[in-house]
């Protein structure tokens, strides 16, 4: 018993014994120190007087709880010692097993631990927020990077040190004509490369930096593409190669354009040489003494015909250049359509088995730039005459919803479906019949119609002829005197 008394009095934690209402019956020195009163003066005080507001109500509720249970209750609350500063107390309370319903209390000052825990909680919350912010920032960064990669106009391939694909965008798959990244490495880029000779593998194996290497590639569907490839190694902070990347730029259209323009120069030189040679030969004969009228008229006719051919070619080139650069400011005038269609029909030179016919109301007219429109109409009619071997070529005009529709239709061989989208491209020459030409006729048509704010439509079926429709907005009527 004496040992218990000594332990009670000198224990490092506060001990209290109260009745069921929290009135102190006994307190040790540690409890007295915590509550700011001598132990004897604590006797008779209610523990609830050291708590205020919600903490006092909470203490009363706990007293009710402990009276209904045989176990121990533990909680934290704020207590204010007499004449001192509030402290955070951890309270342990249990009911005595004796006949008297005494309550035994343990009081521990956990203010510092609570402050430390609060600070730790604050730091933990801040850290969690930073992690969330960083995670969100990384997610946004990845989303932006993914958007950039997928919307790049060039193909991107990144491989690791083992040569396996780590990133391949859809554009790269499209350019190389494959469906999955694995297919890229299951086949050679092009026949010119052996194993590990492609730009990507050279960058990975030998650290070579490849810039704009032109590759002619045959895709799995047997189509030919031209690609500019650039490749470079990927290094870590220590300078070690950990992968490689390649950029692929599809230059098929550019390559074909360049080839077409080179062919145009060759064809133009050849075509110009023929009329020039005929003109020079005719002049030589005339200078040599062909002065009699029959002979002279023949050679003068040659000169006139070939000169007209040269003039038409030069005019075609000028019209195309002016229309596409905007130099030709449309100077509108009223154009009577019936006489114009008759003039165009008379100027074409169809095959003997082809009939040329026109259909147009006499009063129908159009407000437009005559030179551009006439050149476009002539080119379409000449093209129809070039390819039509039998049947007819018709030129017609009519008023449709306040606009003029001019139609040139022929019974020629038609245009293959896969070529119809290209016939208005500059220097494009179709495959039908192997006819010679510069690839300028329909290009001039498209540019001229665009310059005069018109619309152009082409429909064709192989073996069934071709129909070209002009739709021009400003109709007019000729007034007879």
Brief synopsis:
The protein is of the alpha+beta class and 481 residues long.
What is the secondary structure topology, with strand pairs?
Blueprint: H1 2-10, E1 14-18, E2 24-27, H2 29-35, H3 39-42, H4 54-67, E3 73-79, E4 87-95, E5 103-109, H5 111-151, E6 155-160, E7 165-168, H6 170-176, H7 181-185, H8 199-206, E8 210-218, E9 224-235, E10 241-250, H9 252-288, H10 293-325, E11 333-336, H11 337-347, E12 354-359, E13 364-368, H12 370-387, E14 391-400, E15 403-410, H13 441-451, E16 455-460, E17 466-472, E18 475-477
Parallel strand pairs: 12-14
Antiparallel strand pairs: 1-2, 1-5, 3-4, 4-5, 6-7, 6-10, 8-9, 9-10, 11-13, 13-18, 14-15, 15-17, 16-17
Helix pairs in contact: 9-10, 10-13, 11-12, 12-13
Number of separate helices: 13
* Biggest pleated-sheet summary: 5 strands, antiparallel
Major β-sheet strand ordering: 2-1-5-4-3
Domain count = 4
CATH classification, class level of the largest domain? Alpha Beta
CATH superfamily of the largest domain: Histidine kinase-like ATPase, C-terminal domain
Mean pLDDT: 80
Distance between the termini: 144 Å
Strand content range? 25-35%
**Under CATH, the topology of the largest domain is which?**
Heat Shock Protein 90
Radius of gyration: 49 Å
CATH architecture of the largest domain: 2-Layer Sandwich
Number of strands: 18
SS class: alpha+beta
The best one-word shape is elongated
Binned, the helix content reads 40-55%
Uncertain residue ranges: none
């Amino acid at each position: 018993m004496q040992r218990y008394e000594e332990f009670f009095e000198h224990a490092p934690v506060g001990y209290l014994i109260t009745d069921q209402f929290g009135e102190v019956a006994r307190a040790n020195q540690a409890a007295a120190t915590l509550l700011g009163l001598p132990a004897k003066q604590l006797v008779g005080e209610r523990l609830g007087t050291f708590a205020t507001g919600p903490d006092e109500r909470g203490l009363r509720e706990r007293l009710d709880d402990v009276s209904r249970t045989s176990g121990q209750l533990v909680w934290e609350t704020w207590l204010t010692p007499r004449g001192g500063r509030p402290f955070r107390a951890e309270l342990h309370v249990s009911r005595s097993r004796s006949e008297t319903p005494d309550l035994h209390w343990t009081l521990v000052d956990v203010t510092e631990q609570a402050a430390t825990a609060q600070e730790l909680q604050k730091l933990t919350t801040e850290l969690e927020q930073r992690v969330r912010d960083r995670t969100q920032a990384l997610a946004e960064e990845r989303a932006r990077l993914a958007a950039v990669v997928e919307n790049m106009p060039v193909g991107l391939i990144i491989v690791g040190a083992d040569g396996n694909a780590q990133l391949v965008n859809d554009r790269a798959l499209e350019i190389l004509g494959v469906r999955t990244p694995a297919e890229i490495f299951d086949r050679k880029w092009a026949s010119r490369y052996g194993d590990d000779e492609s730009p990507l593998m050279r960058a990975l194996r030998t650290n070579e930096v490849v810039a704009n290497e032109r590759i002619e590639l045959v895709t799995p569907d047997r189509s030919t593409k031209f690609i500019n490839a650039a490749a470079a190694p990927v290094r870590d902070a220590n300078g070690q190669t950990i992968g490689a990347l390649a950029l692929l730029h599809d230059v098929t259209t550019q390559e074909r354009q360049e080839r077409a323009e080179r062919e145009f120069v060759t064809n133009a030189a050849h075509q110009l040489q023929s009329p020039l040679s005929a003109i020079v030969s005719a002049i030589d004969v005339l200078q040599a003494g062909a002065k009699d009228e029959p002979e002279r008229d023949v050679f003068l006719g040659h000169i006139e015909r070939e000169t007209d051919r040269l003039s038409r070619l030069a005019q075609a080139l000028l019209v195309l250049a002016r229309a596409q650069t905007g130099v030709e400011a449309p100077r509108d005038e009223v154009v009577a359509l019936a006489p114009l269609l008759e003039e165009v029909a008379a100027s074409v030179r169809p095959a003997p088995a082809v009939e040329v016919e026109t259909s147009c109301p006499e009063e129908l007219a159009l407000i437009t730039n005559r030179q551009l429109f006439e050149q476009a109409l002539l080119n379409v009619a000449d093209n129809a005459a070039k390819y039509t071997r039998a049947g007819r070529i018709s030129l017609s005009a009519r008023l449709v919803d306040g606009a003029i529709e001019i139609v040139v239709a022929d019974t020629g061989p038609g245009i293959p479906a896969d070529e119809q989208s290209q016939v208005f491209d500059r220097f494009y020459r179709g495959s039908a019949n192997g006819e010679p030409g510069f690839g300028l006729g329909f290009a001039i048509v498209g540019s001229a119609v665009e310059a005069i704010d018109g619309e152009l439509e082409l429909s064709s079926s192989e073996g069934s002829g071709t129909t070209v429709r002009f739709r021009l907005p400003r109709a007019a009527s000729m007034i007879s005197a």
